[in-house]
Amino acid sequence: MNDPSVYLVADTRITAQARERGVHALTLPEVVAEAVEAGVRMVQIRAKDATAEEMEALAREVAAVTDGRAALVLNDAVDVAVRLRAAGVPVDGVHVGQSDRSPAEARALLGPAAHLGLSANQPEHLEALRRLPRGTVSAIGVGTVRATQTKADAPAPKGFDGLRDFLAAAEGLGVQRIAIGGLGPGDPSRVREAGADGMAVVSAICAAPSPREAAALLRAEWDASAPHPAG
Ligand SMILES: Cc1ncc(COP(=O)(O)OP(=O)(O)O)c(N)n1
Ligand SMILES: Cc1nc(C(=O)O)sc1CCOP(=O)(O)O
Ligand SMILES: [Mg+2]
C-alpha cells in the first residue's frame, strides 16, 4: 500500500511562482527530488496548464526522480497515466476530482493495481463512494482544511473539527483518507488526531525557501505525532 502520510502535490504554477519571486531556484523535478530525499513517499504532479504531451514529458522526468522511492500520481490525466504505465514508466496512478473522469471509468482504464485518488468533501460524495465496488477508489482527498490560495475553486474550509467529522463518516469505506488545503508545519499532529492517514501539501513544500527542509520538518512532525486511537 502507498504511504500518503506526507504527500507532496507538486504544482507547476506554485513552483514557477516561487522561482520567479526568488523564494528558491528549483524546477519542479528538483523540488520533488529534495522532498523525496527528505522522506516524502507520495508525490502528485499537478500541472493545470499542461497539455497531455507536456504532462507526459514532465511525468517521465519526475518518474526518473521518484523511481520507486515514492509513489507517483498524476492529477486528472488518466490517459497519460495509462500510457506511461503501459510503457513501463513507474507511475502509480491518478487523482481525480468530482468533475473529472468518473472513478469507475478511471479504474476500468487503469486496471486493479493502480492507485486511484478521489476528492471527497460532501456527504453525497461519500454516498456515491459507498455504492462503488470495493477497490475502485484507493484514497480520498478531503479538503479544504484551511482556506488556500492554491486552488481557486477549492471547497469551503472545514477546519479541523469538520475534518474529523468528515473522516469519521468515511470510516469503513476501505479507502485511505488524506487531508488537504492550507496545511503546513505544526499541523501533522492535528491532522493525525482528526483521523487522517496523510496530509497533502502544495505551498508548504513547493513555495518554501528550502523544499528539502520543509519536507524534512513535516516528515519529522508526522513521525513524532500519535496516530488516531481508532488506528
Ligand atoms: C490528494 C488530493 N486531494 C484533492 C485534490 C483536488 O483534486 P480536484 O478536486 O480534482 O482539484 P484539482 O487538483 O484537479 O484542481 C488533489 N489534487 N489531491
Ligand atoms: C489541490 C487542492 N485540492 C484541495 C481540495 O480541497 O480538494 S485544496 C488544494 C490546494 C492545496 O494547496 P495548499 O497546500 O497550498 O493549500
Ligand atoms: Mg482534478
Task: Characterise the protein shown here.
The protein is α/β, with parallel strands linked by helices and 231 residues long. The chain contains ten helices and eight strands. The chain has an eight-stranded parallel beta barrel, surrounded by seven helices. α4 links the parallel β3 and β4. α2 runs parallel beside α10 and α3 crosses α4. The longest helix is centred in the N-terminal third of the chain and has 15 residues. Bound molecules: ligand LCLJCK34, the ligand Cc1nc(C(=O)O)sc1CCOP(=O)(O)O and magnesium ion. The site of the ligand Cc1ncc(COP(=O)(O)OP(=O)(O)O)c(N)n1 has 17 residues, from β2, β4, β5 and β7. It holds the Pfam family TMP-TENI. One of its GO terms (cellular component) is cytoplasm. Condenses 4-methyl-5-(beta-hydroxyethyl)thiazole monophosphate (THZ-P) and 2-methyl-4-amino-5-hydroxymethyl pyrimidine pyrophosphate (HMP-PP) to form thiamine monophosphate (TMP). Its cofactor is Mg(2+).
